[in-house]
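User: Could you go from structure to sequence for me? I need the amino acid at each position, not a summary. C-alpha cells:
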C-alpha cells in the first residue's frame, strides 16, 4: 500500500501543481515509485492517454516529473467548461454529459466510487501518491460534499501541505485565514505550510514565520523562491495569453500569431515553438494585432461555433482572410481547422444546434456528433501542396480530441497527413491543405522535433534568416532538465527531513 501526501493551496494559482511536481521529482530521484493524483480537475487543456482516454494536462506534467506514463486514474474526473455556469463532465476519461454547475454540485458525491477505484489502482502500483487539491479548501460555500480538497484527504487519510502565494501579498492572512475556516479535524491534517514565489531576504521574513507558528501552531517547512522554470502549469493560462499586441520587429525574429479565442483549448500546443530562441509567439484578439506574421495559427477551442461568431463579431475574419491572400502560412488545429472550412453542421446539438458557414479557406465540411473522438496518432505529412508541401514525408505525432468529423469536398484538395491511431491501429487521412492554408486535428504536433524544426527552417528561408534558428530541440529532454531544476529548488528550500516524516518515509 502506498504512502501519501496532499498539496492544497490557499487559492488558485498558489503553485500547487508545480510544488506537487517538484515533490514527485525529488521522491523519484530518491528511488521511490511515485504517482500524482487529482480527483477532479477543471480545465480546457486536456490530453489523450495511450488507451484513448481524456485527462487533465496538469497531471500529465506531474507524471512526466515522476518519470511515468500518464494514465486516466491520475485524474478520474475532468470538468471542461462549456459556459460560465456549466461543464462537460468526463469520468474515467469518457464524457458523461454536460451539466450546469448546480446540477453537478448535487451529483458529484455519486462519483466517489469512481474516485476511490482510480486511487486504489495507483495505490497498488506505487510507493507514494502525491495528491493535489483544487482552488482553496476554505471555500465554505463549497465544503459540503467536497471531493477534491479536505474531503479527498479524509477519504484516503492523507496529511496535507498548505501552499500560499507570497508574491501577491497577504500570505500570512492567506495561510492563517484558511486554517481558521477549516474544521478542527481538517486543521489536524495540515502538517506544514509552504510560502511560494518568495522574492527577497529570507532573514527579514523569519520573525513573521515565528509569529505565524504562534498563531496557527503549524510549522512553515518551505519558503520557495520565485524561480523562472519553463514548466507547464494549468493556472498559467492567463499569464501565457497575456502576450498580446504587435510583433517584435527585431532583426532575425520570427513572428507567430495565435488567435486568442475565448474558449481556447490546449494552449500548450504552442509551447514547443515559444521555447525556441528567436521565435515570438503572441496572441491576437483584436484586428490590428494580426498584421502580417510569419505564421498564423487558429488554435483549438471547446466551443467552435461560439468562437467563430466571436471572431466575426470582433472583426478578425477579414485580417485572417487577408493573411491567407498574402501568402502567410495559416494553420488551423482542431476547432481552428473546423473554422477554416466551408461549413460546420451541428444539427445533432453538440454545441448550439446550428449550421454555420466557415471562413472558406479550406474545401471542408464538418459535421458534429455527440460522440467524442479521442486517440493518440502517429504518421507522416502527405501533402505536396504550397508551403506545406515542403513537409512531405515529415514525421508527425500528437493526439485528437474532437466531437465531429471533417470531409474534404473538392477533388483537387489534399489531406494534410496520413495517420495511424495508437488506440486501434486504424489508418486514415487527417486534415486538409490548399496552398498556404492547412488544417489538422493533431494537438501537440509542434512537440515533434522533426516537424517543428522543418517549420522553423521554412519560415526562416521565407524571411531570409540564416542565423540557425532552425536548430532542432529535443522537447522531451528539455522538459526533463526543467524538472530536475525544480527538484533542486525544492530540496534547497524545503525541510525534506520533516516532509519525509510527514509522509511516513523516515
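Assistant: Here is the amino acid at each position, in order:
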Amino acid at each position: 500500500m502506498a504512502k501519501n501526501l496532499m498539496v492544497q493551496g490557499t487559492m488558485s494559482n498558489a503553485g500547487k501543481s508545480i510544488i506537487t511536481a517538484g515533490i514527485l521529482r525529488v521522491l523519484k530521484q530518491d528511488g521511490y515509485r511515485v504517482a500524482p493524483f487529482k480527483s477532479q480537475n477543471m480545465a480546457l487543456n486536456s490530453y489523450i492517454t495511450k488507451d484513448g482516454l481524456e485527462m487533465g494536462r496538469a497531471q500529465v506534467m506531474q507524471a512526466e516529473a515522476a518519470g511515468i506514463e500518464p494514465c486516466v486514474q491520475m485524474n478520474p474526473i475532468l470538468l471542461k467548461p462549456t459556459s460560465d455556469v456549466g461543464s462537460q463532465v468526463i469520468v474515467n476519461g469518457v464524457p458523461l454529459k454536460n451539466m450546469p454547475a448546480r446540477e453537478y454540485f448535487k451529483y458529484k458525491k455519486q462519483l466517489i466510487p469512481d474516485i476511490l477505484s482510480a486511487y486504489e489502482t495507483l495505490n497498488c502500483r506505487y510507493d507514494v501518491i502525491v495528491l493535489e487539491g483544487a482552488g482553496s479548501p476554505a471555500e465554505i460555500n463549497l465544503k459540503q460534499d467536497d471531493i477534491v480538497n479536505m474531503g479527498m484527504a479524509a477519504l484516503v487519510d492523507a496529511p496535507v501541505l498548505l501552499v500560499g502565494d507570497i508574491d501577491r501579498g497577504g500570505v500570512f492572512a492567506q495561510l492563517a485565514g484558511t486554517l481558521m475556516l477549516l474544521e478542527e479535524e481538517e486543521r489536524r491534517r495540515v502538517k506544514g505550510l509552504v510560502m511560494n514565489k518568495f522574492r527577497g531576504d529570507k532573514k527579514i521574513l523569519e520573525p513573521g514565520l515565528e509569529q505565524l507558528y504562534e498563531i496557527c501552531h503549524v510549522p512553515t517547512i518551505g519558503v520557495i523562491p520565485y524561480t523562472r522554470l519553463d514548466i507547464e502549469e494549468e493556472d498559467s493560462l492567463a499569464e501565457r495569453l497575456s502576450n498580446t499586441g504587435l510583433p517584435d520587429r527585431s532583426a532575425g525574429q520570427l513572428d507567430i500569431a495565435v488567435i486568442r479565442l475565448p474558449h481556447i483549448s490546449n494552449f500548450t500546443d504552442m509551447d514547443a515553438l515559444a521555447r525556441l530562441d528567436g521565435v515570438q509567439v503572441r496572441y491576437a484578439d483584436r484586428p490590428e494585432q494580426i498584421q502580417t506574421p510569419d505564421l498564423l495559427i487558429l488554435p483549438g477551442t471547446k466551443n467552435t461555433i461560439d468562437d467563430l461568431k466571436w471572431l466575426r463579431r470582433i472583426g478578425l475574419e477579414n485580417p485572417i482572410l487577408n493573411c491567407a491572400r498574402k501568402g502567410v502560412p495559416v494553420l488551423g488545429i482542431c476547432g481552428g481547422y473546423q473554422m477554416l472550412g466551408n461549413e460546420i453542421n451541428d444539427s445533432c446539438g453538440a454545441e448550439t444546434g446550428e449550421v454555420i458557414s466557415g471562413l472558406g479557406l479550406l474545401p471542408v465540411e464538418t459535421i458534429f456528433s455527440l460522440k467524442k473522438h479521442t486517440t493518440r496518432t502517429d504518421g507522416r505529412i502527405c501533402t505536396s501542396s504550397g508551403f506545406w508541401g515542403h513537409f512531405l514525408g515529415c514525421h508527425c505525432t500528437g493526439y485528437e480530441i474532437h466531437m465531429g468529423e471533417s470531409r474534404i469536398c473538392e477533388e483537387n484538395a489534399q489531406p494534410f497527413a496520413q495517420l495511424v491511431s495508437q488506440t486501434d491501429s486504424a489508418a486514415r487521412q487527417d486534415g486538409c491543405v490548399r496552398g498556404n492554408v492547412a488544417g489538422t486535428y493533431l494537438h501537440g504536433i509542434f512537440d515533434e522535433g522533426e516537424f517543428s524544426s522543418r517549420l522553423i527552417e521554412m519560415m526562416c528561408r521565407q524571411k531570409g534568416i540564416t542565423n540557425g534558428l532552425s536548430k532542432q530541440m529535443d522537447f522531451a529532454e528539455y522538459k526533463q532538465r526543467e524538472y530536475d531544476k525544480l527538484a533542486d529548488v525544492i530540496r534547497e528550500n524545503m525541510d525534506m527531513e520533516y516532509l519525509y516524516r510527514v509522509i511516513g518515509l523516515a
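One structural detail worth keeping in mind: The domain at 3-39+110-232 is CATH 3.40.50.300 (Rossmann fold).
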